Structure formats: C-alpha cells, structure tokens
Amino acid sequence: MNERQGFSVAGIPTVVVCLLLALLGLALFTGMAGGRLSWEVLAGIGMEVLVVLMLKGFFQVAPNEGQVLQLFGKYAGTVRAEGLRWTNPFCSRRRVSLRARNFESGKLKVNDSDGNPIEIAAVVVWQVVDTAEAVFCVDDYENFATIQSESALRQMAQNYPYDAHEDGKPALRSHGEVINDHLRDEIQARLDKAGVRVIEARISHLAYAQEIAQAMLQRQQASAIVAARERIVEGAVGMVAMALDKLRQQGVVELDEERKAAMVSNLLVVLCGDRATQPVVNAGTLYGG
C-alpha cells in the first residue's frame, strides 16, 4: 500500500460557507408564520443540521505532519497541506509526524566475528516518508523501528571483528564510516516495509564485555609494546648501519669484523635500552682493554 493524496479543501473559505448556511437556515426557521410547518422551516432545520455535520470535517495540519484519512475503514488518502483544512466529515483522521526522530538503542551484548563477547549500542535517526505504509503495514511503526534497529545492530556486529587483525579488513573499532554505512543499510532493509527512511545510524557505545575486558586490555597493551619495539629495533639497525658506513667512508677508523660486532652490540644496547646507559671510558689500548 502506497501513500496517495487525500481529498481536502481550504478551511477558511469553508468556514465562511458554513457561516452563511447557518445564517440562512436561521432566517428560514425564524420566518415561519402561524407556527405551521412549511418547506421553509424544514429547509432551515436541514441547513442547521448540515452545518453541524460539516463542522466535524475541519482539522488542522501542522508543518511536517500528515493526516491519514479513512472512510468507513478504507484508506482515503493523506493530507499534507498545512493549515486549516476540511474534508468529508465521515472520514476518521490519524496524525502522523513526518519530522526526523532519533533514539539510542540499549547496550546489546553480542559476539563479534571472532567470537569475543562485546557490548554495542547505536544512535538511529529516522523519519516517516510513506504514511500509508507506516499506519497500515505495521501495527506500531515506532516500536517496529526500535526493535528492528536493534536486530540489525546485532546482525551487523556479528559480521566484523572488534579489532582488525589484517590490514585492510574492516573492524568495529577502526573503520567507523564503513561500519556506520553497513548499519544504516541493514536497518533500512528492515524498515522499508514500514514507510520509514533511515537518515543516519552511528555506533554510540563499543566495548569488550566485562568478563574479558581485562584480558583484552592486556593483549592490546602487549600488541602496542611489540609494535613499538619493532619500530625501535628497525630504527636502531638503520642508525648502526649508517654509523658504520660513515666511519668507513670518511676513514676515521679501521675496524675488523670482531670490533665491528662489538660496536654493533654496544650501539644496539644504547639505542634499544629502556634506561639511560652509563658511558665507560677505555683508558687502555683498543685491543688491550
């Protein structure tokens, strides 16, 4: 079922018409002579009844709002024109907001693609774009949007790891835009039948579950330490190689392989150590110690 425009006319001119009919009916009713019923009296009473009936057809439409019309249970269209409107007084009306809304899901406990339990929550911004589908295709479109969004969030979280273990592979913690786009598409696929458009969906909370949080923190710290050590060693080896090349090119000193090995060892200790080293002055000969 798709939305279509419902019948309505401007309310102010209709108010004027009702007022004129009421005055005309009152004039006919009060103009009877001798207390006898006549066609003028019946016409006046009929006009007054018609005016009372027409008054039930007035309603207001606020900006970014739609009024869904039903005539004896059948969908009769939606009115989106703002202001005072008038329609068939036998139509029932239901107000549907077309404004953007947002909600934050509860913290869900799910397993990521690696099987690690995590806590995740999201903020979803959505709005109704088809009032007919929102009212007639689902029972409660607001509750439907909330539940389906949490279901999509749970499904999306199971497709990605918390941390990326391979370069270029999306992860929940490191690829925010990719994850948010996937989440929005997952939610939109579930809410299409309810006439709802998802404007934005973003992760608002992401953490390991409490039972593994401490262990995962230690793993992250260990990974950071290993990565830092790799960079330090890589830089130290480059500096040692550069020092040996400079000494050889400039002819400062000639070192045999044994002395080169000793120099490399000392330089690596100095460059890779966690603490400041203490210099030792060699007072003897190079080979005598």
Task: Tell me the number of structural domains.
Answer: 3
Quickly name the level 1 CATH class of the largest domain. Answer: Alpha Beta
Helical amount among residues, as a percent range?
Answer: 40-55%
**Strand content range:** 15-25%
What composes the largest sheet? 4 strands, antiparallel
The CATH architecture of the largest domain: 2-Layer Sandwich
Please give the count of helices: 7
Spans of at least 5 consecutive residues with low confidence = none
Q: How far apart are the termini?
A: 95 Å
Per CATH, the superfamily of the largest domain is Band 7 domain
Protein traits:
22% strand, alpha+beta, 4-stranded antiparallel sheet
Notes on the structure:
The protein folds into three domains: 9-97, no CATH class; 101-208, Band 7 domain (Tetrahydropterin Synthase, Chain A), CATH 3.30.479.30; 220-272, no CATH class. It contains seven helices and ten strands. It has helices at 11-30, 39-55, 131-136, 141-157, 176-191, 210-250, 257-272; strands spanning 9-10, 58-61, 65-71, 74-79, 83-86, 91-97, 101-104, 108-111, 117-128, 196-208. Strands 7, 8, 9 and 10 form a four-stranded antiparallel β-sheet that branches. A hairpin with a 2-residue loop joins strand 3 and strand 4 (74-79). It is rod-shaped and about 135 Å long. The mean pLDDT is 83.
Question: Could you provide a short overview of the structure?
Answer:
This protein is of the alpha+beta class and 289 residues long. Helices cover 46% and strands 22% of the residues.
